[in-house]
């Protein structure tokens, strides 16, 4: 009997095809239909990258899985920011700030709100560990305050930016705080970040709904494809940088909306993974993903951009606008009130989603 040959899956084909496309068109600046086609490959590469990160994460287990996914997403985010800043378009001085702030708002309000809403509607209450979630939230708030709010009020520079010494401090403090959180999450108090059961049955500790973790061989293959997909994302983002900015301008949106586009592109697969976990009553895994992404967006992106700014021309404006500071303050207060009880009703999810909607509307029409 002839063995049936298994066709390669989309998650294998897309990274290979995206990398081949990148090699073929490197150095060009396509427009129109060509740019739209390349954008599809870019989105596919992002989806494939997060898929393979999830496979590897499934192998190493929770909370290491959430940490790996957050870092993979941040690598993509940094690559998109730097490539767009290198492209030399207008107003790139605020691109890092706008993208990081958008990632925080989408993660803390969008992903968290959607997950709480889905889980509480399906299981009556969304149950999670307030100790672990509170530690993650306090880290996010501190990072956002130091890196995004303080530059608006410093006086060493004329604009909403840090002086070189201040930027070095903010970058070092961000890395130190992120490293301390990772130590807390994965070693010292790992149990605070494990899925919580509400008493209606066991929780799947694998973290993504699959019955069995992948083999070592499968995990290594996914790790290689993850690296290939990340390289493809970096290269295709560089090629698409002009098209992204032209598209935002054609819609009549402020240039700051480019940051929202980048954050949405990067966090869409993460949102799907977190919502799926919430539907399976693994809200803690969802919150690990959401807050971990927000934390990595600041704690890893700002240091990377600080180093890149040595070679980039122009200022690096990190200070938020007054309206953005108000939204961040409201988000912090609402998030604290959500986390303290350790369980949430649909109302809490709705409140977070309204804050996200306010952010989107005011980004389009400040």
From TrEMBL:
Q: What is this protein called?
A: Ionic transporter y4hA
Molecular functions (GO terms): potassium:proton antiporter activity; sodium:proton antiporter activity
PANTHER family associated with the record: SODIUM-POTASSIUM/PROTON ANTIPORTER CHAA, SODIUM-POTASSIUM_PROTON ANTIPORTER CHAA
Q: Which UniProt keywords apply?
A: Membrane, Transmembrane, Transmembrane helix
Q: Which organism is it from?
A: Nocardioides cavernaquae
Q: Where is the Sodium/calcium exchanger membrane region domain?
A: 37-186, 222-364
Entry-linked InterPro entries: Alkaline_pH_Ca-Antiporter, NaCa_Exmemb
Pfam families in alphabetical order:
Na_Ca_ex
Cellular compartments annotated:
Membrane
Membrane spanning stretches: 9-27, 33-52, 64-88, 100-121, 133-153, 165-184, 219-237, 249-268, 289-311, 323-340, 347-364
The record gives the membrane topology as: Multi-pass membrane protein
Look up the record and report any one GO term of the cellular component aspect: plasma membrane
